[in-house]
Automatic annotation (TrEMBL):
Name of the protein described by the UniProt record: Helix-turn-helix domain-containing protein
PANTHER family, A to Z: HTH CRO_C1-TYPE DOMAIN-CONTAINING PROTEIN, TRANSCRIPTIONAL REGULATOR PROTEIN-LIKE PROTEIN
GO molecular function per UniProt: DNA binding
HTH cro/C1-type domain mapped to chain residues: 20-48
Superkingdom, natural source: Archaea
Species classification: Archaea, Methanobacteriati, Methanobacteriota, Stenosarchaea group, Halobacteria
Biological source species: Natrialba swarupiae
InterPro entries listed in its UniProt record: Aldolase_II/adducin_N_sf, Cro/C1-type_HTH, Lambda_DNA-bd_dom_sf, ThiN
Pfam family, one: ThiN
Amino acid sequence: MQFVEEIVVDEFLPTVRSMLAAALRERGLTQSEVAEMLGISQSAVSKYAHGDVTTNDRVVSDERVEALVEELADGLAAGDVTPVRALIEIEILIRELEGGGDLLAQLHEEAVPQLGEHDASFRVHDPENELRTSERVLSSLRRGLRILENASGFTTLIPAVGSNLVACTPGAEDVDDVAGVPGRIFDVKGQTTVPASPEFGVSEHVATVLLAARSRGAEVSAAINVTYDRELLGALEERGHVAAEFDESEDIASSVAAAIDDEPDATVLYQTGGMGIEPLIYVLGSDAESVADDVRSLS
């Protein structure tokens, strides 16, 4: 009898630690620094570096594992990601890979073939519980924010009221189910500044736009507001977005809902301003990273 946790301990974690140790060494960190960062001994780092630890080729070649290792190595080396945050990100990925039919589930079934003959799901951890769902949203949002922070020229797109990148849980019903940046994103001396880590329930304005679009069937889970410019609008349309105008001088939720009713495929919403109202564009998408990528292409 072998549990999926044993697959994680025996196959996944040694492989990921080896990949991460190598990636950090490539970024100039010493064995001592890598050991402290990963919470392992220097001798273990040396074994990883010399290939003395058996790794799983399927884990190594998994695109999601590769991408996360590179992202965490960049963040840890730069000091933008703490070891605790890296642990959480890896934990989230483990739970995703334990899903039925995914990598860790496949390795588990191969180790215990009888599981494949059993009618019930052998997923040991439910990745859809509320805590893990919220963590996935925050993780996606943090990645989106890093894209914006590293985007050359994004500050030119930040409106006077500030921008906010938000993302919501799959069953979002109100602003408490939407995560965003407390205090919004601002341009501080030409530098994109995210004043605090994302939290749920801190964005009312952009969250309201996102929720209103979803209430009319829009299949979107993230949004950002940027300054209005006709050329920017055209650039977004060239990228395949469908744009719809709404009137922010009216009730925002009702106006956005009406705009989606008129243009169900809209993924860009905009208003051209009015007395005391700054003109804005709202870009919507499936997740925070894709929204951030769309905006980065404009800067």
